[in-house]
Specification:
The complex is a heterodimer of chains A (317) and B (421). Chain A is mainly alpha-helical and 317 residues long. In chain A, 75% of the residues lie in helices and 3% in strands. Chain B has 421 residues and is an alpha/beta fold. Chain B is built from 18 helices and 12 strands. Chain B has helices at 2-31, 48-61, 74-87, 100-107, 125-128, 154-159, 168-180, 194-207, 210-218, 227-239, 252-260, 273-280, 319-329, 332-342, 356-367, 373-377, 385-397, 403-415; strands at 36-42, 65-71, 93-96, 141-142, 144-153, 184-186, 264-270, 286-289, 302-306, 309-312, 345-346, 369-371. In chain B, the strands form 2 sheets. In chain B, strands 5, 6, 7, 8, 9, 11 and 12 form a 7-stranded mixed β-sheet that branches. A 5-stranded mixed β-sheet of chain B has the order 2-1-3-10-4, sandwiched between helices. The chains are: A mainly alpha (317), B alpha/beta (421). Chain B: Keywords: Signal, Transport.
Chain lengths: 317, 421
Amino acid sequence: MNEQKKDVKYMPAIRKARYPRKHLVHLFLMPALFFYIVFQIYPILSAFLNSFFSFKGMHKDSFIGLENFVRLFTESPFKETFNNAFWHNIIFFIGTVLTKLIVAFILALIINSKIKGKEFFKTVLFVPKLLSVIVVGFLFSLILNPTYGALNTFLKIIGLESLAQPWLGDPDTALYTIILVNSWYGLGFAILIFLAGLQAIPEDIFEAAKMDGAKGLTMILKITIPMIMPAIMIETILTFIGSFETFELIFAMQGSSGGPYYSTDVLATYFYRLAFGTVDGGEAIGLGSALAVVLFLIIAAATAIILFFFKKREFEQ
Amino acid sequence: MKRCLIYFITILFVSSIFLAGCSSSSSDSEKKVNKVELTIYSWRPEDKAAYEKFIDEFEKENRGVEVKFKPFKSTEYGTILTNALSSGKGPDIIQLRPYQGATTIADSGYLLPLDNVKGLTDIPKEYLDAAKGSDGKVYGVPLTLNSAVIFYNTQLFKENGLEPPKTWDQLLQVSKEFQSKDIVPIAQSGKASYLLSLTHSVIGATTYDGNQFVEEFLTGEVNLHDPRFVESIKRMKELEPFFPKDFVAIEDKDAQALFYTGKAAMYINGDYRLESFEQNNPDLPIDVLPSVANTEGGDTPSVTWVDGSYGVVKASKHQKEALKFIEFLASKKFGQMFSDELNRMSAIPGVTPKHLLVKKLTEMSEKSNTPYFMLVHLGDGSPTTKTTFENALQGMYIDKLTADDVIEETQKSLDKWFKKQ
């Protein structure tokens, strides 16, 4: 009782002592806030604003309301290019998320088991993430080169020449090849997220399940996967955002037109061409901004839906 | 009270940094008070060393003016330039893309008209057309001419007992001969689709009767469905077996390497590749052909266009000095230096190239020339008709489109903006 009284008595003094410190923290946040506003909020707002204007070259011309959006979805070739690029983004997401979730989960399970050299494997698998995407794109362009690339040369050496392909020059293989490269690049990060999830599962849950007679696959399906659902959710959302924002890898490997003949074109490469690629003869900054706004809305809406879906599943469990 | 003190100290600290920054820059500017600094933006980093020599020459004659040449990567140049111009804090002089590229920037009001600059009136009208605004005024001084040509390895032709092709049929014939000897007939890359339209310009120069078709097209008498133009696309398809295997997946640098290492007999591209061949294999015995005739003894025009010009930014604080530099660029002295240093054809009249091949190119171009149709006349639209055409050609080579589809897609893009003259 006395102690409580003492606390109350000293509260104003404590508060007073902490008060300036608290505000000092706010002050330290100011530079970060400044950069966030300048480099994040301002571009988003200005893209929103530009999307309602027509442009003559680089000059903002007149307010045209939603016309840029209407043109984007109804006028040829914009609508066809949009649909094509959007579809590629969906394939990119599904391909990447499936490859990453399955392979990263299996590898995380192996690393998490009591194997030797755990740390070594963890490091090796994470190394690609340390490289820049552009470097990865360039490296794989060399590896996949049909004339002197390492992959086709290797296939020839082991007698599988019939499997050698112009991996990036054939529209049937180009997109899937890039998806595989992208998955390889992001694998290490996914493994780390899964490992964190796996290590957070209390050992006694597995022991209790064992006593109840659960084994191998049942254990993974009934215990491991539900318990690491938050990690799966994070990985899915990050992959979704990454897949819809993907640009550098495709730009590095196939150029801004997503070649050959738009077979690897995605919304971000299409945006780049619309907004900047036709600077030499375009009036497309307004259209490009409209596409950026649509891209923003797609990512925001889909992320909200994925979050809702996973939260609900988590709650049900 | 304490809070106020902390805010006060912080503000004092921050403002002292700003003030310190301002004061040092003001003292710097005082030092440079007599020196005018001009900045030039270009998309040719590979020319930096040569420009330093040109600039030295200019600075010698114009004491008190310091010129800074700032080149950027070609593919990023457009974006960088857009940002610089729209911020109003850009350079003083900028390199302009030819034709529609220059018109767009001029029409946006970013440039000074140059019609009265000394030396500009001596430059042929068709070259100045590459740097005009919609108002008919000239906004750039053309720097260099490009020719699209067929490079060929003279030694490979000699060793295999073959003559350089003069007609279309001969081109197919020698290609077959080289192919039978495991030599790539034509080193072509299809990864960047613009390379395909460049090859088309050489192949099509005689197929669609060069200038004749262009004139009829501009007056609206014919469109791209004209049999002569259709034939040019069909010829492109006919050449496919003579390109390297999987050429749509290989880069231009790989195609170049096939040529300069002697694995390929011919290579079709701009004459500006001469420089890279000489750097990579100075002993490579090469010669050039402007195009191939329809029949023996027929005309073989050289596909020529202006590659870029230099304009003065209206927002420049040193317009007078910038115009002086432009005058320098329009002089014969500069034209000669430019041609000698970079082995390129100068747009300035009266320049005699030092390099034998460049001399030959100049003569070929003077004898008979035709414009790079897609670049000079079809560079408008969004996406441009040129881009649509190039990507459609790529689509044809990966069997997504037929030759007729290529025409259809290109004409559709053209119909959106083209007005007959």
